[in-house]
Amino acid sequence: MTATYPSLLLVGCGKMGGALLRGWLAKGLNGRQVAVLQPSRSVADELTPHGVAVVASLAELSADFVPQFVVVAVRPNQLAEACAPLKDAKAVQGAGVISIVAGISVVRLQELFPQASAIVRAMPNLPVEVQRGMTSLFAAPDTKVEAKGEVEALFASLGKTLWLGKEEQILLTTALAGSGPAYVFLLAQAMAEAGQTLGLSATDSALLARATVSGSGLLLDKRTEDAATLVAEVAVAGGVTEAALQSGLQQDLPRGLRTALEAGLARAKALG
Ligand SMILES: NC(=O)c1ccc[n+]([C@@H]2O[C@H](COP(=O)([O-])OP(=O)(O)OC[C@H]3O[C@@H](n4cnc5c(N)ncnc54)[C@H](OP(=O)(O)O)[C@@H]3O)[C@@H](O)[C@H]2O)c1
After folding, report:
1. Is 185 in the pocket of ligand 1 (CB under 6 A)?
2. Are residues 32 and 152 in the same domain?
3. Model pTM greater than 0.85?
4. Which residue range forms the structural domain that includes residue 254?
5. Do residue 157 and residue 230 come from a single domain?
Protein backbone atom coordinates (compact mmCIF):
# COMPACT_ATOMS: atom_id res chain seq x y z
CA MET A 1 0.00 0.00 0.00
CA THR A 2 1.32 3.47 -0.84
CA ALA A 3 1.55 5.73 2.20
CA THR A 4 0.61 9.41 2.13
CA TYR A 5 3.65 11.47 2.97
CA PRO A 6 4.19 15.00 4.25
CA SER A 7 6.66 17.27 2.46
CA LEU A 8 10.16 16.98 3.92
CA LEU A 9 13.36 18.97 4.15
CA LEU A 10 16.15 16.50 4.90
CA VAL A 11 19.14 18.19 6.48
CA GLY A 12 22.09 15.88 5.85
CA CYS A 13 21.83 12.87 3.58
CA GLY A 14 24.57 10.48 4.57
CA LYS A 15 24.28 6.85 5.58
CA MET A 16 21.16 7.19 7.76
CA GLY A 17 19.46 10.14 6.06
CA GLY A 18 20.04 8.36 2.74
CA ALA A 19 18.65 5.06 4.05
CA LEU A 20 15.48 6.82 5.23
CA LEU A 21 15.00 8.69 1.99
CA ARG A 22 15.60 5.60 -0.16
CA GLY A 23 13.08 3.73 1.99
CA TRP A 24 10.45 6.47 1.65
CA LEU A 25 10.99 6.87 -2.09
CA ALA A 26 10.62 3.11 -2.53
CA LYS A 27 7.35 3.25 -0.57
CA GLY A 28 5.87 5.92 -2.80
CA LEU A 29 7.06 9.27 -1.46
CA ASN A 30 7.00 11.66 -4.40
CA GLY A 31 10.53 13.05 -4.81
CA ARG A 32 9.05 16.48 -5.59
CA GLN A 33 7.85 16.65 -1.99
CA VAL A 34 11.44 16.44 -0.74
CA ALA A 35 14.40 18.75 -0.60
CA VAL A 36 17.80 17.72 0.69
CA LEU A 37 20.02 20.36 2.25
CA GLN A 38 23.63 19.22 2.10
CA PRO A 39 26.50 21.65 1.33
CA SER A 40 28.49 19.08 -0.69
CA ARG A 41 25.42 18.04 -2.74
CA SER A 42 27.16 14.65 -3.05
CA VAL A 43 23.82 12.85 -3.39
CA ALA A 44 22.54 15.03 -6.25
CA ASP A 45 23.28 12.48 -9.01
CA GLU A 46 21.37 9.76 -7.18
CA LEU A 47 18.40 11.84 -6.03
CA THR A 48 17.77 14.44 -8.72
CA PRO A 49 16.34 11.82 -11.13
CA HIS A 50 13.69 11.07 -8.46
CA GLY A 51 12.63 14.73 -8.53
CA VAL A 52 14.33 15.53 -5.20
CA ALA A 53 15.81 19.04 -4.98
CA VAL A 54 19.34 18.75 -3.60
CA VAL A 55 20.52 22.17 -2.45
CA ALA A 56 23.69 23.45 -0.83
CA SER A 57 21.87 26.32 0.90
CA LEU A 58 18.32 27.36 1.76
CA ALA A 59 18.55 30.23 -0.72
CA GLU A 60 18.47 27.66 -3.54
CA LEU A 61 15.11 26.28 -2.42
CA SER A 62 12.15 27.10 -4.60
CA ALA A 63 9.99 29.79 -2.93
CA ASP A 64 6.92 27.56 -3.07
CA PHE A 65 8.59 24.65 -1.30
CA VAL A 66 7.16 24.60 2.23
CA PRO A 67 8.20 21.52 4.18
CA GLN A 68 5.83 20.12 6.78
CA PHE A 69 8.77 18.49 8.56
CA VAL A 70 12.48 19.16 8.76
CA VAL A 71 14.36 15.89 9.28
CA VAL A 72 17.75 16.53 10.84
CA ALA A 73 20.21 13.77 9.94
CA VAL A 74 23.67 15.22 10.50
CA ARG A 75 26.26 14.02 12.99
CA PRO A 76 26.13 15.51 16.48
CA ASN A 77 29.27 17.60 15.87
CA GLN A 78 27.73 19.01 12.64
CA LEU A 79 24.45 19.96 14.28
CA ALA A 80 25.10 23.57 15.31
CA GLU A 81 26.52 24.53 11.90
CA ALA A 82 23.80 22.70 9.99
CA CYS A 83 20.94 24.21 12.00
CA ALA A 84 22.18 27.81 12.21
CA PRO A 85 20.77 28.82 8.78
CA LEU A 86 17.40 27.23 9.65
CA LYS A 87 16.76 29.10 12.90
CA ASP A 88 15.08 32.17 11.41
CA ALA A 89 14.50 30.87 7.88
CA LYS A 90 11.08 31.73 6.51
CA ALA A 91 10.96 28.51 4.48
CA VAL A 92 10.78 26.35 7.60
CA GLN A 93 8.63 28.53 9.87
CA GLY A 94 5.84 26.38 11.25
CA ALA A 95 7.44 23.10 10.20
CA GLY A 96 7.80 20.25 12.66
CA VAL A 97 11.32 19.05 13.42
CA ILE A 98 12.36 15.41 13.56
CA SER A 99 15.89 14.79 14.77
CA ILE A 100 17.64 11.45 14.38
CA VAL A 101 20.84 12.85 15.89
CA ALA A 102 22.13 10.57 18.64
CA GLY A 103 22.31 12.07 22.11
CA ILE A 104 20.78 15.48 21.29
CA SER A 105 17.97 16.34 23.70
CA VAL A 106 14.57 17.88 23.08
CA VAL A 107 15.67 20.92 25.11
CA ARG A 108 18.68 21.43 22.84
CA LEU A 109 16.47 21.01 19.76
CA GLN A 110 14.03 23.60 21.13
CA GLU A 111 16.96 26.04 21.42
CA LEU A 112 18.01 25.31 17.84
CA PHE A 113 14.44 25.45 16.48
CA PRO A 114 12.49 27.93 18.60
CA GLN A 115 9.78 28.27 15.92
CA ALA A 116 9.17 24.55 15.37
CA SER A 117 5.52 23.50 15.46
CA ALA A 118 6.55 20.10 16.84
CA ILE A 119 9.77 18.46 18.00
CA VAL A 120 10.26 14.72 17.86
CA ARG A 121 13.40 12.68 18.40
CA ALA A 122 13.57 9.54 16.27
CA MET A 123 16.13 6.77 16.47
CA PRO A 124 15.82 4.60 13.36
CA ASN A 125 18.20 1.91 12.21
CA LEU A 126 19.70 1.09 8.83
CA PRO A 127 17.12 -1.56 7.77
CA VAL A 128 14.64 1.31 7.20
CA GLU A 129 16.17 1.30 3.72
CA VAL A 130 14.41 -2.03 3.08
CA GLN A 131 11.29 -1.20 5.14
CA ARG A 132 12.45 -3.48 7.98
CA GLY A 133 13.59 -0.73 10.31
CA MET A 134 13.04 -0.23 14.01
CA THR A 135 12.48 3.37 15.06
CA SER A 136 12.14 4.62 18.63
CA LEU A 137 10.28 7.91 19.03
CA PHE A 138 10.10 10.53 21.73
CA ALA A 139 8.13 13.76 21.39
CA ALA A 140 8.51 17.03 23.26
CA PRO A 141 5.75 17.12 25.91
CA ASP A 142 3.71 19.83 24.13
CA THR A 143 3.65 18.01 20.78
CA LYS A 144 0.18 17.82 19.27
CA VAL A 145 -1.41 14.41 18.76
CA GLU A 146 -1.77 15.09 15.00
CA ALA A 147 1.94 15.79 14.62
CA LYS A 148 2.84 12.66 16.58
CA GLY A 149 0.53 10.69 14.31
CA GLU A 150 2.18 12.07 11.17
CA VAL A 151 5.68 11.28 12.46
CA GLU A 152 4.62 7.80 13.48
CA ALA A 153 3.12 7.13 10.04
CA LEU A 154 6.31 8.36 8.38
CA PHE A 155 8.48 5.86 10.24
CA ALA A 156 5.88 3.08 10.40
CA SER A 157 6.04 3.02 6.59
CA LEU A 158 9.65 1.82 7.02
CA GLY A 159 9.17 -0.85 9.68
CA LYS A 160 8.27 -0.92 13.33
CA THR A 161 7.96 2.04 15.71
CA LEU A 162 8.01 2.40 19.47
CA TRP A 163 7.02 5.52 21.42
CA LEU A 164 9.13 5.98 24.52
CA GLY A 165 7.65 7.33 27.75
CA LYS A 166 10.90 8.84 29.02
CA GLU A 167 13.47 10.73 26.98
CA GLU A 168 16.48 9.04 28.57
CA GLN A 169 15.25 5.68 27.21
CA ILE A 170 16.29 6.79 23.72
CA LEU A 171 19.93 6.53 24.78
CA LEU A 172 19.44 2.85 25.40
CA THR A 173 17.37 2.24 22.28
CA THR A 174 20.17 3.96 20.34
CA ALA A 175 22.71 1.47 21.73
CA LEU A 176 20.36 -1.49 21.26
CA ALA A 177 18.53 -0.95 17.98
CA GLY A 178 20.22 2.09 16.37
CA SER A 179 23.61 0.37 16.63
CA GLY A 180 22.08 -3.13 16.51
CA PRO A 181 22.53 -3.80 12.78
CA ALA A 182 26.30 -3.45 13.33
CA TYR A 183 26.22 -6.26 15.91
CA VAL A 184 24.36 -8.48 13.44
CA PHE A 185 26.71 -7.62 10.56
CA LEU A 186 29.64 -8.33 12.90
CA LEU A 187 28.13 -11.72 13.63
CA ALA A 188 27.99 -12.44 9.89
CA GLN A 189 31.59 -11.32 9.50
CA ALA A 190 32.77 -13.42 12.47
CA MET A 191 30.91 -16.51 11.19
CA ALA A 192 32.46 -16.09 7.75
CA GLU A 193 35.95 -15.66 9.20
CA ALA A 194 35.55 -18.69 11.47
CA GLY A 195 34.38 -20.83 8.56
CA GLN A 196 37.31 -19.70 6.47
CA THR A 197 39.79 -20.33 9.28
CA LEU A 198 38.49 -23.88 9.60
CA GLY A 199 38.81 -24.70 5.91
CA LEU A 200 36.13 -23.16 3.68
CA SER A 201 37.00 -20.77 0.88
CA ALA A 202 36.47 -17.08 1.71
CA THR A 203 33.69 -16.84 -0.89
CA ASP A 204 31.82 -19.94 0.25
CA SER A 205 32.12 -19.03 3.90
CA ALA A 206 30.87 -15.46 3.29
CA LEU A 207 27.88 -16.81 1.32
CA LEU A 208 26.98 -19.29 4.06
CA ALA A 209 27.25 -16.68 6.82
CA ARG A 210 25.35 -13.98 4.92
CA ALA A 211 22.48 -16.21 3.86
CA THR A 212 22.22 -17.71 7.35
CA VAL A 213 22.05 -14.34 9.10
CA SER A 214 19.60 -12.78 6.65
CA GLY A 215 17.38 -15.89 6.50
CA SER A 216 17.33 -16.15 10.30
CA GLY A 217 16.30 -12.49 10.53
CA LEU A 218 13.39 -13.10 8.18
CA LEU A 219 12.34 -16.19 10.11
CA LEU A 220 12.51 -14.33 13.42
CA ASP A 221 10.29 -11.65 11.91
CA LYS A 222 7.76 -14.20 10.64
CA ARG A 223 7.50 -16.52 13.63
CA THR A 224 5.72 -15.52 16.81
CA GLU A 225 7.94 -17.52 19.19
CA ASP A 226 10.63 -15.66 21.11
CA ALA A 227 14.29 -15.90 20.14
CA ALA A 228 15.12 -18.34 22.94
CA THR A 229 12.53 -20.81 21.61
CA LEU A 230 14.03 -20.57 18.14
CA VAL A 231 17.51 -21.24 19.58
CA ALA A 232 16.12 -24.39 21.22
CA GLU A 233 14.52 -25.40 17.91
CA VAL A 234 17.94 -25.56 16.23
CA ALA A 235 19.92 -26.82 19.23
CA VAL A 236 18.48 -30.27 19.80
CA ALA A 237 19.85 -32.27 22.70
CA GLY A 238 23.08 -34.09 21.90
CA GLY A 239 23.37 -32.43 18.50
CA VAL A 240 25.92 -30.29 16.67
CA THR A 241 24.39 -26.92 17.59
CA GLU A 242 24.12 -27.75 21.27
CA ALA A 243 27.80 -28.70 21.33
CA ALA A 244 28.69 -25.46 19.53
CA LEU A 245 26.65 -23.27 21.89
CA GLN A 246 28.00 -25.00 25.00
CA SER A 247 31.58 -24.31 23.88
CA GLY A 248 31.22 -20.90 25.56
CA LEU A 249 29.20 -18.88 23.04
CA GLN A 250 26.02 -19.07 25.09
CA GLN A 251 27.78 -17.27 27.95
CA ASP A 252 30.21 -15.07 26.02
CA LEU A 253 27.75 -13.57 23.52
CA PRO A 254 25.22 -12.22 26.07
CA ARG A 255 28.03 -10.96 28.28
CA GLY A 256 29.78 -9.27 25.35
CA LEU A 257 26.54 -7.67 24.14
CA ARG A 258 25.71 -6.32 27.57
CA THR A 259 29.17 -4.76 27.82
CA ALA A 260 28.74 -3.35 24.31
CA LEU A 261 25.38 -1.80 25.17
CA GLU A 262 26.81 -0.24 28.33
CA ALA A 263 29.64 1.30 26.30
CA GLY A 264 27.20 2.54 23.64
CA LEU A 265 24.93 4.00 26.29
CA ALA A 266 27.83 5.87 27.88
CA ARG A 267 28.85 7.25 24.48
CA ALA A 268 25.28 8.33 23.66
CA LYS A 269 25.14 10.18 26.99
CA ALA A 270 28.47 11.86 26.30
CA LEU A 271 27.33 13.06 22.85
CA GLY A 272 24.56 15.08 24.49
N1 LIG B 1 24.38 5.38 10.71
C2 LIG B 1 23.44 4.83 11.46
O3 LIG B 1 23.22 3.63 11.43
C4 LIG B 1 22.58 5.72 12.35
C5 LIG B 1 21.51 5.13 13.05
C6 LIG B 1 20.68 5.95 13.81
C7 LIG B 1 20.93 7.31 13.92
N8 LIG B 1 22.00 7.83 13.27
C9 LIG B 1 22.25 9.28 13.43
O10 LIG B 1 22.17 9.85 12.15
C11 LIG B 1 23.02 10.98 12.08
C12 LIG B 1 23.83 10.90 10.79
O13 LIG B 1 24.61 9.75 10.85
P14 LIG B 1 25.20 9.10 9.52
O15 LIG B 1 25.72 7.78 9.90
O16 LIG B 1 24.19 9.20 8.42
O17 LIG B 1 26.41 10.12 9.24
P18 LIG B 1 27.00 10.58 7.83
O19 LIG B 1 26.94 9.45 6.87
O20 LIG B 1 28.31 11.21 8.11
O21 LIG B 1 25.96 11.69 7.34
C22 LIG B 1 26.01 13.03 7.76
C23 LIG B 1 25.46 13.86 6.62
O24 LIG B 1 25.39 15.23 7.03
C25 LIG B 1 25.87 16.05 5.95
N26 LIG B 1 26.31 17.34 6.48
C27 LIG B 1 27.47 17.67 7.07
N28 LIG B 1 27.48 18.98 7.43
C29 LIG B 1 26.26 19.48 7.04
C30 LIG B 1 25.65 20.77 7.12
N31 LIG B 1 26.27 21.81 7.67
N32 LIG B 1 24.40 20.91 6.62
C33 LIG B 1 23.73 19.87 6.07
N34 LIG B 1 24.28 18.63 5.96
C35 LIG B 1 25.52 18.43 6.45
C36 LIG B 1 26.98 15.21 5.37
O37 LIG B 1 27.32 15.64 4.07
P38 LIG B 1 28.83 15.38 3.52
O39 LIG B 1 29.14 13.94 3.81
O40 LIG B 1 28.75 15.68 2.10
O41 LIG B 1 29.69 16.29 4.32
C42 LIG B 1 26.32 13.84 5.36
O43 LIG B 1 25.46 13.72 4.24
C44 LIG B 1 23.90 10.97 13.32
O45 LIG B 1 23.54 12.00 14.19
C46 LIG B 1 23.64 9.62 13.95
O47 LIG B 1 23.62 9.70 15.35
C48 LIG B 1 22.82 7.08 12.49
Report:
1. no
2. yes
3. yes
4. 180-271
5. no
